[in-house]
Each structure stands twice: as C-alpha cells, then as structure tokens.
Amino acid sequence: MNNILIALLGLPTMAVFIYEDSVELFSKIPPIFTGLAWLLVCAAIILSFWQAFSLFFNGDVTVCKGQISINDKMYSIIDEPGNTCIVSRNLSWTDGQRIMDSLKQKAKSGDLTILVNEDNETTTKLRAQGAKILVYNGAIPKCRFTIKGYKGANSRLYIAKANSPDRHVIFRHSEKDDVTLRLAEDLVHILETKA
Question: What is the pTM of this model?
Fold first, then answer.
C-alpha cells in the first residue's frame, strides 16, 4: 500500500521531467493545482524519509558489520532465557568462548536443540553436555535461523541474511501469528521427524 501511495505522490514530479519546458507548463496551470502538485511532492519526500527512518530504527532489524558485531548479536540471542532451537549448517559462528559457554549452559539445562547438516566437534561437545543434536542428512535448508522460546507461547524467530561474509542483517519475527515464524517452526518439525 505504501509503495502505491509513494508512486501516486511522485506523479507530479514525473510530470516535470516528462515535459521539456516545465516552467511554461506550470505557468499555464492554475496556481491552486501547482500548489497541490508541490504539496504532493513534499508529502512523497516526507513519506520516503519516514519509511527510511522507521526501517533504520526498527527493533526487529539489526545490521551487524564485522565478525565481532555478528558474534555479539548471536551471543545476545543465545543468552536470552528460554528454550533455544538453532538450524545451522555447521555452527561455524560458535568459535568464541563466550558463545560456547552460553550454549553449554543451555545444553546442561536441557534448553538447547540444534539441527545441523553433519556432526562435527562442536556438536559432539554440546551433545555430551545434554543438547539435543539432530542431523538432517540430505535436505539442506538454505536459510539458517534461531528460534527462542522454542515450542513456547512467546517464541521469537531470528533470521540472518548475509549481505557479505562480514555484514549480516538479522530480522526478528515475534508476533504470535507471524507466518514466517510459523513456517520456521514447521520446517524444524519436519527436520526433526526426518533426522
């Protein structure tokens, strides 16, 4: 809806660029319509800034630049109280001691489920601590994510989109009826039954 509104508000601006002699065009239009056109242009600019501002300061989107920032965000997600379910390829991001300590603590308390493509040294250590490790041979999801409050009423989904190896955008989905959250939970359930 917002994209349609922006397109409609931008029509007066497009009219200026379509005609070579826009000054002559606007001099022939009654002043009330010229004022309305400029009002629409200003409204489109303000709406564009508002959308950019709200996206930038949205608590459901985090931009992490550099491996330290990515690991700090992952630690803050993992360290939240509650059951944690991680779908990962190989848990390569768990190389920091702080993250491993938090994962081991969750494993000891029975609050850690991990689905990976294959066992490795990290999964072996976490399994020994009590984590539920499931290996999903064959099907390899392209999307890796973490669900906090897994199988609970207030679950939250964190999905990382890697724009480059050292820049990730992490999206949080936490609405009770969020379709993305529900799809992730369904995928985990399917992978659990397959493993």
Answer: 0.67
